[in-house]
Design goal:
The complex is a heterodimer of chains A (377) and B (82). Chain A is built from 12 helices and 14 strands. With 377 residues, chain A is of the alpha+beta class. Chain A is globular. The longest helix of chain B is centred in the middle third of the chain and has 15 residues. Chain B is built from 4 helices and no strands. Helices cover 52% and strands 0% of the residues of chain B. Classes of the chains: A alpha+beta (377), B mainly alpha (82). At the A-B interface, helix 1 and helix 6 of A face helix 1, helix 2 and helix 3 of B.
């Protein structure tokens, strides 16, 4: 990694910048408890400002296990000096499928440093401290502040691809053309054609029954064991983690639909609605899992999302996976692929010779639900 | 401390910031150098510590808005020969 000093050297430099001995800095790095929450909220308020458009206390209490009660698989790590929180890094403990093993890994999410000590290098140090303690660390997505850090500290996997399709053209054309009357005229036939096409595609659901899920049970774990492309590296899905992740989330309300062959769950898809700054209404597909014996379930579930989006007067539907094999189906269903700067994916592996495929982007399946962008456009 | 010529200091900065040396010129602004982010700043702190025993603080680092500010910092501390 060009320009990245060693952990030991960084500990010395950052400790010096903060007036702490290296041992003090190391000892000050710990899992946050409920008592740290007010200071964490204050730092996030300072950094996020007006972008903080949700109940952050409720969100963080859901996201991270401050009480050690085990309700969440997230840990918020903090650096504390004399009881003052200097910075924080949020992380989720996940297990990655690798051949027949499950590799314990850490997904890094929010990083924030008190603006009063900006420039101290504490954000980098916290990353290095986590690398030192965990065999596999992931970063999925970045923002303008963190993109350089992710690029320099992690092995780059391919960016997740952003697929998007319009489902109603009126507001979409208005935004593109800026002329309401012309947009309405053009949108009318486009809406009719797309609606007719989607109705025709209903035929493809034949043989499967789609049902809304309000809770996952053991059937999703059976589905996980029968999933398509089991050699791919992906997050382990269990009923407990999916229930926490998709149904308990205070920042995003997910709709989850299961595809059934008789009584057997052969696929699910999770989506949620977001409002963009440009007033277009969007449905984001956050996750899916498909039975290897029912590959058509993916198409049926995506079409169901599209139909529900039309009924809910949405404008666009998007999905952002790292999964090359999903491209042809999504394109056939009218999605267009784009690359976005901040959809980068990085992995840091202590022993790459032990898990060489972790460095191979073609081996991965990741999705939006593997990020912390819930409810954000 | 062994002082170095300005050209060597620019090369040192380019290496630390992972930028081509031709793009690290005295009048170049910090915000126009992609590599001079938090990681680059830390790499520079490490380099100054190793080569000259200089303890560049985060405050001093943040005040630097262009390459010439770093050269001035080195010159003031006797780390440049010219």
């Amino acid at each position: 990694m060009p320009g990245a000093p060693s952990f030991e050297k960084t500990t010395k430099l950052v400790g010096r910048a903060l007036g702490m001995k290296p041992d003090e800095l190391r000892a000050g790095f710990r899992a946050a408890t409920r008592a740290h929450l007010p200071q964490i909220l204050e730092i996030r308020r300072k950094i996020l400002g007006e972008r903080l458009a949700w109940d952050d206390e409720r969100y963080l209490a859901w996201r991270y296990d401050f009480d050690g009660a085990g309700h969440s698989r997230g840990t918020c790590f903090v650096v504390v000096r004399n009881e003052r929180v200097l910075g924080l890094v949020g992380a989720e403990h996940v297990r990655l499928t690798y051949d027949r093993d499950l590799v314990p890994s850490l997904l890094i999410m929010d990083i924030a440093v008190d603006p009063a000590i900006d420039g101290s290098g504490l954000g980098i140090w916290m990353d290095l401290a986590l690398f030192d303690a965990h065999p596999v660390v992931l970063a999925i997505g970045a923002n303008p502040n963190s993109v350089g850090l992710v690029e320099k500290l992690f092995h780059a996997l391919p960016h997740r691809t952003h697929y998007v399709t319009p489902v109603r053209f009126t507001r979409f054309f208005q935004k593109r053309l800026g002329r309401e009357r012309l947009a309405t005229m053009l949108a009318l036939p486009a809406n009719v054609v797309v609606r007719a096409w989607r109705k025709l595609t209903r035929l493809r659901d034949r043989g499967l029954v789609l049902r809304k899920l309000t809770r996952f049970d053991a059937s999703v774990e059976a589905l996980f064991s029968r999933r398509a492309a089991p050699d791919e590296i992906t997050f382990e899905r269990t009923a407990a983690t999916l229930n926490w992740r998709l149904f308990g989330n205070p920042r995003a309300r997910y709709e989850v639909v299961g595809a059934y062959d008789g009584d057997t769950l052969v696929g699910y898809i999770a989506s949620h609605r977001t409002a963009r700054r440009d007033a277009l209404r969007e449905v984001g597909i956050a996750d899916w899992l498909i039975d290897a014996r029912h590959p058509k379930a993916f198409e049926a579930l995506v079409l169901d999302v599209l139909r529900r989006a039309v009924r809910a007067d949405m404008d666009l539907v998007h999905a952002t996976p790292l999964l090359a094999r999903s491209g042809p189906t999504l394109r056939r269903l009218g999605f267009r692929a784009t690359k976005r700067t901040y959809n980068l994916v990085g992995v840091r592996v202590q022993e790459p010779e032990r898990w060489p495929r972790l460095l191979d982007g073609a081996a991965w399946y990741l999705n939006e639900a593997n990020t912390d962008r819930d409810g954000m456009a | 401390m062994t002082p170095i010529p300005t050209a060597a200091a620019l090369q040192m900065m380019a290496d630390a910031l992972d930028e081509p040396v031709a793009s690290v010129t005295p009048d170049r602004r910090r915000d126009s150098i992609a590599g001079w982010d938090s990681m680059g700043a830390l790499a520079l702190m490490a380099e100054l510590d190793d080569r000259f025993g200089l303890q560049l603080t985060s405050d001093d680092s943040l005040k630097m808005t262009k390459v010439d500010d770093m050269l001035a910092y080195l010159r003031d501390r006797g780390a440049l020969t010219d």
